[in-house]
Amino acid sequence: MNWGMNLRNRLDGTTRCWDIEDIEEDYADPYITAFAEIIAFDDVTFRFDVRNVTDAYRCRDRTRYVGHVRDNILEEIETNCFGSGRVFSLKMSGTF
Questions:
Q1: Mind listing the pLDDT tens digit for each residue in 41-67?
Q2: Which of 56, 71, 84, 89 has the largest CB neighbor count within 10 A?
């Protein structure tokens, strides 16, 4: 039996980028993938995969200003979050 897991998580939390007229913040929950596989009868391999185990979301907040950021004249705030949901798959491989 083989198994494994992959975890992606940010050490510093939010990533913030400044531009002349806007500020973007990017943040996400931990993202985990995992698998387990077994070689059964007649060299047939069964593999179970799970992507996005934690049902993680990734978000971006964008704050736009009129003119330069230093003038602090707010134009709009945009929030965008998305996630793919959990994905399960069962694969069977071998020579038939």
A1: 888 999 999 999 988 888 999 999 998
A2: 56
